[in-house]
Design brief:
One of its GO terms (molecular function) is hydrolase activity. It comes from Streptomyces pyxinae. Keywords: Hydrolase. The chain is α/β, with parallel strands linked by helices. About 25% of the residues lie in helices and about 25% in strands. The protein has 7 helices and 15 strands. Strand 11 and strand 12 form a beta hairpin. Helix 1 packs parallel to helix 3. The chain is globular, with a radius of gyration of 17 Å. About 45% of the residues are buried.
């Protein structure tokens, strides 16, 4: 399976509509190059551009949804389209990740559970999601997580129990905590013996410099590819069988005693 992570530069001087069109073009260019394409968190507005959350909020099937659905179909790829500021019918805002199949059909939607901000910013402007979500990518079902979720290992354990063999973590991660980004991405891969596809942004959101350094980690915790700090595309070939091989060679998950799902039939 060929995977492309698109580390998009978010410049507040670039209009949202222009960036949406530019990113759609980048996705279309992955036709024949990748089977799965991944975008970062809140790339249309910027994860720290709180002043844009309200004016740029979109309905469930808004302009970013439509643009990314069409781009996925044109490219013939599975597309994790990063996340958008979703405005629900009741008026609440969510940080919502969108996943499309290679015909442009929606296959998963994940509302970010752990909101960042410590009682300000996203933490007070957006409502939390309440469901663990996996995307049915052939041979490599993916658990979905967004940015700050990376700090909560119980979410990833739940996704493993739901059948995930890999995780997509889309993010707008600050440069000042870049070492945490790399460390936690590798930790989630090692402890769950699963691939981690961690895609962040470049540039700056409302004056917050972004870490970049998107990375792909294998089930043994080895970094297969890592980006720099600017806009960049990583393309890596994954072997889904590597997950089962790792779990068989070092069957640590079988020794879980706390928080394990009940045996079949109970």
């Amino acid at each position: 399976m060929r995977v492309s992570l698109l580390q998009i530069a978010v410049d507040q001087d670039e209009p949202v509509a222009a960036r949406r069109a530019r990113v759609a073009t980048l996705v279309r260019a992955r036709r024949g190059v990748a089977d799965l394409v991944v975008l970062p968190e809140l790339w249309p507005v910027g994860a720290f551009a709180y002043d844009l959350f309200e004016p740029e909020a979109e309905p469930a099937e808004g302009p970013t949804y439509r643009a990314m659905s069409e781009a996925a179909a044109d490219a013939g790829v599975w597309l994790h389209a990063g996340s958008v500021v979703e405005r629900a019918p009741d008026g609440r805002l969510y940080n919502t990740a969108l996943v499309f199949g290679p015909s442009g059909e929606p296959v998963a939607r994940y509302r970010k559970i752990h909101r960042f901000g410590f009682d300000k910013g996203e933490a007070v402007m957006m409502a939390p999601g309440d469901e663990l979500v996996t995307a049915p990518v052939p041979d490599l079902p993916l658990g979905l997580a967004t940015c700050y979720d990376l700090r909560f290992p119980e979410l990833f354990r739940g996704l493993v129990d739901a059948g995930a063999l890999g995780f997509v973590v889309s993010a707008g991660w600050p440069a000042r905590r870049r070492e945490h980004w790399t460390l936690l991405s590798r930790a989630r891969a090692v402890e769950n013996q699963a691939y981690v596809l961690a895609c962040g942004t470049a540039g700056g959101h409302a004056g917050v410099e972004q870490a970049g350094h998107s990375l792909v980690v294998d089930p043994w915790g080895e970094v297969l590819a890592e980006a720099g700090t600017g806009e960049e595309i990583l393309t890596v070939t994954l072997d889904p069988a590597r997950v089962a091989e790792t779990r068989e060679q070092f069957p640590a998950l079988k020794d879980r005693l706390l928080g394990t799902p009940p045996p079949p039939g109970r």
